[in-house]
Amino acid sequence: MSEYIDQKRKTLEMIFKTAISTDSRIVEKIKNMIAQGATKKEILNRFEDIMSEQYDKLFSTMSVYKAKELKAIGVDIDKSKTKAYLLNRFIKNTSEGFPHYEKIPHPQIIVDHYQEQLEKILTDKTTLSGVKKINEELEELGERRIAGTILNTEQQRINRQYEREIVAEEIQTELYLYEGPIIETSREFCRVHVGQVKTENGWNSLDNGAGHPGPIMEYAGGWNCQHMLMAITQDMRDRYEEEGII
Ligand SMILES: [Zn+2]
After folding, report:
1. 68, 107, 147, 242: which one has the fewest Cβ atoms less than 10 Å from its Cβ?
2. How many separate domains does the chain show?
3. How far is the CA of 172 from the centre of ligand 1 (A)?
4. Domain extent for 172
5. What strand order describes the sheet that includes 197-199?
6. Separation of 38 CA from ligand 1 center, angstroms?
7. Does the model's pTM come out above 0.85?
8. pLDDT tens across 159-184, in order?
């Protein structure tokens, strides 16, 4: 496997794991605040900050992974600029309000929804038995993974936007390779398209059949899809074909 592809797969895996563990980290932080005697108001006030910290951490990590990816093809990229791009992309995506999501909430709604759930769980005066109950309900809130699918889908989307807006520009190409491992639960659309190369328009003219109306270039196979639309040059394409990678 080419080191470039390998690094990109590592980024995808990292994003997937981060999305899944986000809820439990939030729950841990709230539990700690309760243990330290924080009031309901204090916890709710801190909540947006806790979420922001999580995103900040994710985008810092992502920018390190992104730098490693490009290093594999000899391109140096500024980590702090990458992080700023990712953060701005996230803010832009969120503020656009995701018109194509009707049933599924976008990240800001997740924040609001989580906050609403917290309001219900937390009591103004916590007794010892109250704390126990709150802890149990918090665990349940984490387990329900309210944010998991959406966070993962949206984080992978930002990863793909970066590919189109930064990498394709950097290496001067209009070609994108559908890349990523095929696992037991991989969708038919992904199975069929892994290893194929098309232009942005070529990809966006397809329908992934996953009921996700967003463009393929941003959502690939749809919810939770861990596949990549990887910008590659014609030279890279030829080489990957020669080496039997695609
Ligand atoms: Zn997929």
Report:
1. 242
2. 1
3. 25
4. 3-242
5. 197-199, 175-179, 228-232
6. 42
7. no
8. 999 999 999 999 999 999 999 999 99
